[in-house]
Write a structure and sequence with these properties.
globular; mainly alpha; Growth Hormone, Chain: A
Length: about 450
């Protein structure tokens, strides 16, 4: 008689473990797709910036700067999106926020492909482009923070860093596919074809990818941590207000910690092909190839650094990233300007590795820095403020710094400044890797 419950329990445990494993796999897939779509869009916009500038600003002497200016302006709305999606994610649930954000983001990206050029509709063309990028920036502001919180709250306690590393890996994969698409397009298509329709194709791909991501997310339950506070009636009506009132020190530290990620990601991985082709005068196809190889190694390093942060702690890994950025950046930019393809490739790989120490650790660090009731809000606000002010503006600021100073290594000083601020912010923060989420 006593063996029956034991048999049921033992047979039930594998089924429960298998169900949890399948759920975590779907969570990883859904989180990956959403961020992939977002950064694939940013990648193709950055990599096709020269073509886009000629389509939308053909008569301007500063058309490339205007194109990157639009890129930067679209980031300025991200803090508003962070407030909106953070409130929605902490008030109603992570799944709801993520399902809607990917739908709106994909639609806005798709619409960019349909905008006629300046030659067809005049000034309305750049205005429509700005409108689409504002909507895209608003919706995308919930992706990185929401996906990170989602993964951390589903992950085993000792693997939160590794699970959260999927988010920066997906962003790098989006950049990688954008780089590959740009490299193939510039090699295969003529200049006339690129200006006519070639640059539009990658934006069209956002629609099917976004629908797939939304479908997977709608099939998931909300995270165990959010379900726990819901069951205990601890979901608060005004998470933003509580975050600013009770958790503002953590918010300030999070904002500072974000700066190296914000500047480094867009300078090293997004702006770099333009820098190599326009400043170093490297062949555009070779510049895309170099960035592509760097991105492949970056993706591999990401999961290593996520695991390192689980073993050695978030603070040690994040501070090591800041130190390496300070030490390596100026010599790296000097070597980039040698014009040697092999040297450029090695420099990008080394810079990418240093950046992964920050990027692979930051999602778990920011998620753990805030309690469950305000986790989405704290992450979304700090991350999107940092990226709006310092990240999205990085390509435009780098272009302006080079133009005004006449120094080809001027972007390195911007990156070093961000690294110093991040080091101080992390040094003042507690170690979060071994703290319980609830």
């Amino acid at each position: 008689m006593s063996s029956a419950p034991t048999s049921t329990t033992l047979s039930g445990q594998p089924r429960k473990a298998e169900t949890l494993r399948q759920t975590r796999t779907r969570v990883l897939t859904a989180s990956f797709i959403g961020n992939f779509v977002e950064w694939f869009d940013y990648a193709v916009y950055g990599y096709f910036a020269v073509v886009i500038s000629e389509v939308f600003f053909p008569d301007s002497k500063n058309k490339l700067l205007l194109t990157f200016g639009l890129f930067a302006i679209s980031f300025l709305i991200r803090p508003l999106g962070g407030f909106f999606w953070g409130h929605l994610g902490d008030r109603i649930g992570r799944r709801t926020a993520l399902s809607w954000s990917i739908l709106i983001m994909s639609a806005a990206t798709f619409c960019i492909a349909l905008i006629p050029g300046y030659a067809t509709i005049g000034v309305a063309a750049p205005l429509l482009l700005l409108a689409c990028r504002l909507v895209q920036g608003f919706s995308a502001s919930g992706e990185y923070a929401g996906a990170s919180a989602f993964l951390v709250e589903y992950a085993p306690a000792d693997k939160r860093g590794r699970y959260a590393a999927v988010v920066p890996a997906s962003t790098a994969t989006g950049l990688l596919m954008g780089s590959l698409f740009a490299a193939v397009s510039t090699a295969v298509l003529t200049d006339a074809q690129m200006h006519d329709w070639g640059w539009r194709v990658p934006f069209l791909l956002a629609a099917p990818m976004g629908l797939i991501g939304r479908y997977i997310r709608n099939k998931l339950e909300d995270t165990p941590a959010f379900q726990e506070i819901s069951a205990e009636d601890e979901v608060i009506k005004a998470p933003m207000m509580q975050m600013f009132r009770d958790h503002w020190p953590a918010l300030l530290r999070a904002f500072g910690a974000v700066l190296l990620n914000a500047v480094g990601f867009y300078v090293i991985l997004s702006y770099m092909p333009t820098y190599l082709s326009e400043v170093v005068k490297l062949d555009s196809t070779l510049s895309y190839i170099a960035t592509t190889v760097a991105l492949i190694t970056y993706i591999g390093f990401i999961f290593v650094t996520g695991s390192l942060s689980d073993r050695f702690g978030r603070r040690r890994v994040l501070m090591a990233a800041a130190v390496l950025a300070v030490v390596l950046t100026i010599p790296a930019f000097m070597l980039l300007n040698t014009g040697s393809f092999v040297v450029i490739l090695l420099v990008q790989v080394v810079l990418g590795f240093a950046l992964t120490l920050n990027d692979g650790t930051l999602p778990s660090f920011l998620s753990e820095l805030f309690p469950t009731r305000v986790r989405y809000s704290g992450f979304a606000v700090s991350f999107n403020l940092g990226n709006a002010i310092f990240g999205g503006t990085a390509p435009a600021i780098c272009t302006w710094l080079i133009a005004t100073s006449g120094s080809q290594i001027a972007p390195s000083y911007y990156l070093i400044g961000a690294a110093v601020v991040s080091f101080i912010a992390v040094a003042l923060s507690p170690e979060t890797s071994r703290r319980p989420l609830t």
